[in-house]
């Protein structure tokens, strides 16, 4: 994992923010990447001593699974690698997954259609993010792809 922490070891941060930073890595767009990302991020958060309860860790793993699975299922043909970014800052966690596919999922903005079976995973991401006091969305990239992201409060 590529670690690009914003806090150098010499910086003195308040105890509750010593884990702040941003970490980026890429994975191939294959099914095996989904559990790998879950485990890698869980281990990263533990190493950074982020204060997470069991319910929040479950929510984080659920969100990651959905975001990476969508990249694998829907963007693999146009994406040689899926980018994953984890940011801890000021008591919030931001999870972002980038792919090269131009399609912007509307499930994060829509009300579910009872007859449509697609897009339920992103609706779940939205529900989890909002229930915890966070947010989620889709941001286009300069290269024509997208970043699907969710933020969750840590406390």
TrEMBL record:
Residues 33-131 form the Histidine kinase/HSP90-like ATPase domain. InterPro entries: Anti-sigma-factor_SerPK, HATPase_C_sf, HATPase_dom. GO terms for molecular function: ATP binding. Keywords: ATP-binding, Kinase, Nucleotide-binding, Serine/threonine-protein kinase, Transferase. Transmembrane segments: none annotated. Gene3D superfamilies: Histidine kinase-like ATPase, C-terminal domain. Pfam families: HATPase_c_2. This is ATP-binding protein. It comes from Streptomyces spiramenti. The lineage of its organism: Bacteria, Bacillati, Actinomycetota, Actinomycetes, Kitasatosporales.
């Amino acid at each position: 994992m590529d670690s690009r922490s914003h806090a150098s070891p010499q910086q003195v941060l308040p105890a509750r923010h010593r884990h702040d930073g941003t970490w980026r890595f890429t994975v191939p767009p294959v099914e095996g990447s989904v559990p790998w990302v879950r485990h890698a991020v869980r281990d990263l958060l533990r190493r950074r001593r982020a204060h997470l309860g069991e319910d929040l860790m479950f929510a984080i793993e659920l969100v990651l699974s959905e975001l990476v699975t969508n990249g694998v299922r829907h963007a693999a043909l146009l994406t040689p690698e899926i980018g994953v970014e984890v940011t801890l800052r000021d008591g919030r966690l931001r999870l972002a997954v980038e792919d090269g596919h131009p399609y912007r999922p509307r499930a994060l903005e829509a009300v579910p259609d009872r007859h449509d079976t697609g897009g339920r995973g992103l609706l779940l991401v939205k529900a989890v993010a909002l229930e915890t006091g966070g947010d989620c969305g889709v941001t286009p990239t300069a290269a024509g792809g997208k970043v699907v992201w969710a933020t969750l409060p840590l406390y």
